[in-house]
Give the backbone structure.
Amino acid sequence: MNIENLVALTKKLRILVVEDNQDSREQFVDMLQNLCDNITSAVDGEDGLQKFKENNFDLVISDINMPKMNGIEMVSAIREYDSKTAVIVVSAHNEENYLEEAQHLNINEYIYKPIDLGSFIESMSKIVTKMNE
């Protein structure tokens, strides 16, 4: 999928970005603003879960290691409310237990830090294609 087609499909998505590192969160939001108009950010898993409960998101993008509630715990709680929202987990960790937990939670994509723009666009393409089937 070329970038113009991707932007056409992602422009109206409601996205929640959950990242405890302020610089990383701001960089992620800046990158996403090229693809979509409706981005909300959260500072940790608890904040992310609260914002998820208050809003209707099409996609959640979350770090794993965060204070208060990690990304896996947050996604697990989200799945109690909504089993269909697309989820991308972003992590610096390549630990098998995270991958296993992610599979059980129906996580759509697992991306390693540092984020490669090409890999991220490929993941977004897969997700929006699936949403539009």
In short: Residues 13-131 form a domain with the Rossmann fold fold (CATH 3.40.50.2300).
